[in-house]
């Protein structure tokens, strides 16, 4: 059976026809997808908030986010940028972390984790707080009574909070409250008790600082039995002891307890 080869122009026309059909199909699919995505049925109808909301409410969120929400939610349920919505919620005071999820067909679910304030950063009322992980954040607590003060280089806030917990536990054995702990720019530590007494801790690792504090708490009862008076200041920078000043008790010279030599600055 003989075969006849099609003319070149016919072949070209067939190829062009197939290409045009393919382009038309792609364009049609694109237009249909665009129409489907923009259909009102996919408009975000509501945002539900779950998790830690002790410091926020629906009214509070609307007041703080209303102006930005219009631009951040300009897309549909299918195209809205969840990363942007997450950043938007995390910009609200007290919100540490937000997880944003789509809920079919037209809702967003936001799960919040709030900061748990454990101390002021800097001075009381500074507007900066420390959370339970040692992170510094901006906010003002509803009730700031009883919050201690932590201070130091911001990048070392976790270290300051960690040492505070160690020292507070040790001082608590003598019913002493640690009101302030500070890491100076020179790397030296100092503290203030809730009775106003100051403590110079000096430099060192957390274990070294804890050992100095234990030397103080372990012998204080013996000294206060001999010398009546509240603690006014303590210098723990001596290698083999500490210097103690009691209110109402004066001496000719300040003599370190336990026969200590000069302190380390």
Task: Identify the overall geometry.
Answer: elongated
Q: How would you classify the helix and strand content by structural class?
A: alpha/beta
Average pLDDT for all residues = 81
How far is the N terminus from the C terminus? Answer: 108 Å
Beta-strand residue percentage? 15-25%
- Along the chain, the helix and strand elements come as HEHHEEEEEEHEEEHEE
Q: What is the rounded Rg?
A: 34 Å
Number of strands: 12
Strand order of the largest sheet: 6-5-4-7-8-9-10-11-12
Q: Quick gist of this model?
A:
Helix content is 34%, strand content 24%. The protein is of the alpha/beta class and 265 residues long.
Structure, described:
The protein is of the alpha/beta class and 265 residues long. The chain is built from five helices and twelve strands. The strands form two sheets. A nine-stranded mixed beta sheet has the order 6-5-4-7-8-9-10-11-12, covered by helices on one side. Helix 2 (58-72) runs antiparallel to helix 3 and helix 4 (157-172) packs parallel to helix 5. The longest helix is centred in the first third of the chain and has 30 residues, at 8-37. The chain starts with 7 loop residues before the first helix and ends in a 19-residue tail after the last strand.
């Amino acid at each position: 059976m003989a075969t006849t080869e099609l003319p070149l122009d016919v072949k070209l026309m067939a190829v062009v026809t197939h290409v045009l059909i393919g382009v038309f199909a792609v364009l049609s699919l694109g237009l249909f997808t665009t129409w489907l995505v923009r259909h009102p049925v996919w408009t975000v109808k509501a945002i539900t908030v779950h998790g830690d909301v002790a410091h926020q409410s629906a009214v509070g969120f609307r007041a703080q986010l209303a102006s930005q929400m219009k631009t951040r939610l300009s897309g549909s349920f299918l195209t809205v940028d969840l990363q942007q919505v997450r950043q938007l919620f995390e910009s609200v005071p007290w919100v540490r972390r937000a997880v944003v999820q789509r809920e079919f067909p037209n809702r967003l679910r936001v799960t919040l984790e709030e900061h748990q304030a454990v101390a002021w950063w800097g001075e009381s009322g500074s507007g900066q707080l420390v959370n339970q992980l040692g992170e510094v954040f901006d906010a003002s607590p509803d009730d700031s009574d009883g919050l201690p003060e932590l201070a130091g280089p911001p990048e070392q806030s976790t270290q300051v909070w960690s040492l505070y917990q160690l020292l507070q536990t040790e001082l608590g054995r003598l019913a002493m409250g640690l009101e302030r702990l500070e890491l100076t720019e020179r790397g030296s530590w100092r503290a203030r008790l809730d009775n106003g007494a100051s403590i110079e801790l000096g430099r060192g690792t957390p274990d070294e600082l804890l050992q100095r504090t234990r030397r103080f708490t372990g012998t204080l009862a013996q000294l206060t039995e001999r010398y009546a008076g509240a603690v006014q200041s303590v210098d723990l920078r001596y290698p083999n002891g500490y210097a103690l000043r009691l209110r109402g008790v004066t001496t000719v010279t300040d003599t370190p307890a336990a026969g200590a030599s000069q302190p380390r600055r």
